[in-house]
């Protein structure tokens, strides 16, 4: 059973998510709240936190994501699909990001993926990351920034696909190589960047992007 906490300042959204998730036998909402305080005041254990990015404020709660992601898996479900919001949430530690207009089955898939330690973006949001990650600037993959661990061109390409949420089999088809080769690239990347799961790999890719574009 996957236990879920839902934090959203709209009561209708909270009830809607609970109704949706309880239709699946393996999902159970154990906490509903309008703010982070409701989560902190609760002693209920949960596996996934569904969090709205804007909680009764015009400030995205990226600082809260950074704090909470250290102790739980965070899935952002937000009305905002703005690139800056998606990138800020992922950089802050979110394990997934889905917009509120996404199909119901996609939200369920996202919860299960995040609960299993994976990383999830809906297709449109993956496109946002792809545009960012597929626009190499000076020094990308060349090792010209001595602060960045050097990756080969194929490893950089693999890291970009991982960050967009593709499976190893999907990456293999896109790169026209075997899945075993992709597995090897990913292990090399993890070793070089000293990261583990998909969420960490995604943040590593975004960090490389940000640093290579720094003046």
UniProtKB/TrEMBL annotation:
Superkingdom, taxonomy of origin: Bacteria
Residue ranges annotated for the Response regulatory domain, each copy included: 3-115
Modified residues (4-aspartylphosphate): 52
Keywords of the record: DNA-binding, Phosphoprotein, Transcription, Transcription regulation
UniProt keyword Transcription present: yes
Listed InterPro entries: CheY-like_superfamily, NreC/VraR/RcsB-like_REC, Sig_transdc_resp-reg_C-effctor, Sig_transdc_resp-reg_receiver, Tscrpt_reg_LuxR_C, WalR-like
SUPFAM superfamilies according to UniProt: C-terminal effector domain of the bipartite response regulators, CheY-like
Pfam family, one: GerE
HTH luxR-type domain ranges (all copies): 144-209
Keyword Zinc: no
Protein's UniProt name: Response regulator transcription factor
Species for this entry: Nonomuraea antimicrobica
């Amino acid at each position: 059973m996957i236990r879920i906490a839902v934090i959203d300042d709209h009561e209708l959204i909270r009830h809607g998510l609970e109704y949706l998730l309880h239709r699946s036998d393996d999902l159970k909402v154990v906490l509903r709240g309008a703010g982070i305080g409701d989560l902190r005041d609760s002693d209920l254990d949960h596996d996934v936190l569904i969090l709205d990015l804007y909680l009764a404020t015009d400030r995205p709660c990226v600082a809260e994501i950074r704090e909470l992601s250290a102790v739980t898996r965070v899935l952002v479900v937000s009305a905002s699909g703005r690139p800056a919001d998606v990138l800020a949430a992922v950089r802050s530690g979110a394990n997934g990001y889905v917009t509120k207009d996404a199909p119901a089955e996609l939200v369920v898939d996202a919860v299960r993926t995040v609960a299993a330690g994976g990383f999830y973006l809906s297709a449109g949001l993956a496109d946002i990351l792809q545009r960012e990650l597929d626009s190499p600037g000076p020094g990308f993959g060349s090792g010209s920034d001595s602060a960045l661990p050097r990756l080969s061109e194929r490893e950089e390409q693999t890291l970009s696909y991982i960050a967009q949420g593709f499976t190893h089999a999907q990456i293999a088809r896109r790169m026209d190589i075997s899945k075993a080769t992709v597995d090897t690239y990913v292990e090399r990347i993890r070793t070089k960047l000293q990261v583990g799961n998909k969420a960490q790999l995604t943040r590593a890719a975004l960090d490389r992007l940000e640093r290579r574009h720094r003046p």
